[in-house]
Amino acid sequence: MENQSLWYLENIDVTGIFCPTKIGDNENHVANNYKKGEYIYLPEEDSNKIYFVFEGRVKIGTFNESGKEITKAILGKGEVFGELAAVGEQKRRDFALTMEKTTVCVLPATDIKSMIKENKGFSAFLMNVMGRKMLETEQRLESLVFKDSRSRIVEFLHNLAIKKGQRVGFEMVVRNFITHQEIANMTATSRQTVTTILNELRNANILTFDRRRLLIRDMDKLKSEI
To answer: What's the mean per-residue pLDDT of the chain?
Structure first.
C-alpha cells in the first residue's frame, strides 16, 4: 500500500504549486529549512500562509488551559498544514513544530484566492484537505467519548497503518514510528498505558516495534482488538 497522504498527487501537481522547480522565479514561493524542534508558527501568530511538507515531519498541536500539550496531527512528506488561512483564519490557533530536519514550501494567503479561481484542481485539493481533517477530528472526538483507553490506542495504530503504512508481503510497516508519549498525546491516554498496550500486542504476535518502525503482522487481528 502506498502512503495515503499522497493520494491527491495523482490528480494535481501540488509539489509544483507549492515548490516550483526554480523557487527564484517567484519571490512569493519560499522553501524554508528547519532543524528538529523548531516552531514554524505558534498560537496567535498571523495566519497568512499555507505550508507543504517537502521533507521531514511536522507536529500540529495546541496547549490546554493548564499548559499541557495536545497533539492534533503528525504530518509527513506530501502533506499540507495551515490551510485555514485560505478560509479567513486571522490568527493561528495551533502550533506547528518540526520533529526532525524539515523543509517546507510556503504559499502566501494573498496568492490563494487567485489560484483557486485559476486552478480548479487546486480548489478541489484544498476542499479535500479540509474535509478530510474535519472527518478525522470528528472520528477522534467520537473515540474519546465512546471508547476506552485501550480501544483508542489500538484504533490509532490501525488508522496509522492505513494512512502511513506500506505493505511488505502480508504485513504493514510504518516507518519513522512516533514515540509512546506522542501516541498518548494523540489518544488522550498516558505513556505508561501506551507502552503496556503495545507490549500486549507484541506478545500476542499482532505487531512488533522499535524506535524506527512499527510492523503490524496481522491487520485483521489488530482491528478485532478495537
So the answer is: 86
